[in-house]
Amino acid sequence: MALAFAACSKSSTGSTSSNPTGPTTSDTTVSFASQVQPIFTSSCARSGCHAGSGAQQGMDLAAGSAYGAIVNVASREKPQFMRIAPSKSDSSYLYLKITGSSLISGARMPYNGGALSQSDIQTIQHWIDQGAKNN
């Protein structure tokens, strides 16, 4: 399955912040719909890697599907981790994948096109740590 990730690539090179409201801080409430989903759409779903019925690891990150596919759902690569464990970014597998943690299997995501910006990573981290609400 890790090889399937290797085949994925972003449609553009480099990574720019897709967070329309700018960087977040731990005391700024993060909205899934307006801040987190756009990151998933531009960096994960648009490339086709994590969208639709053929989504890698069955993790569809397209709008309308992403929340249900990740929050309190066990990772297929490492089932001992939830993809997103609300309030626990340090044990959320999706967060570990985008930060390149030594706890992951396979490669850091997104695989091609460069890592997410620090701002996007912080937005996702804050959303998780705030309870990963579907807002």
Assembly level: single chain
Structural class: mainly alpha
Q: Note the main sheet.
A: none
Distance between the termini: 32 Å
Tally of structural domains: 1
What low-confidence regions span 5 or more consecutive residues with pLDDT below 50?
Answer: 1-21
Portion in helices: 25-40%
Envelope shape? globular
The string of secondary-structure elements, in order, is: HHHHH
The total of helices stands at 5
| Share of β-strand residues | under 5%
Rg, rounded, reads: 13 Å
Number of strands: 0
Features of the shown structure:
5 helices; disordered N terminus; 135 residues; mainly alpha; 0% strand
Summarize the structure.
This protein is mainly α and 135 residues long. Helices cover 32% and strands 0% of the residues.
